[in-house]
Here is the input.
Amino acid sequence: QVQLVESGGGLVQPGGSLRLSCVASGFTFRRYSMRWYRQAPGKERELVATITTFSYSTSYADSVKGRFTISRDNAKNTLYLQMNSLKPEDTAVYYCKAGDFDYWGQGTQVTVSI
Here is the structure.
C-alpha cells in the first residue's frame, strides 16, 4: 500500500531555511508526479509545489515562488522541498502527495516565529 513519510519540519526564525523530505513506498515512485501541500490552522489545505516524473517540470504557488524549490531523487524514492527566506505565514503542516492516490501521510510541522 502507498506510504508517505514526511520529515524535516521544525521551528525556525523568519528568514531561515528548512529542507523537508518525503520518503515514499508501496508504488513505483518514478512514474508519478509528486506534490507538496500545506495546511495552516483554520485554513484549507493548499497546493505548494508540483514536480513531474523525472523532474521534467516544476510549478509553485505564487506565495512561495522564488523561495521554495521542489526536487526528487527517484533512486531513493524521496521527494524534497527546500524552503528559504521563510516567513511567519509559511507556518503550517506540510504534506506530500503522490499522483492521484487518495492518501495523506502524517505531515511535518513547520513553524516560523521569532
User: Anything to note?
Assistant: The chain has a mean pLDDT of 96.
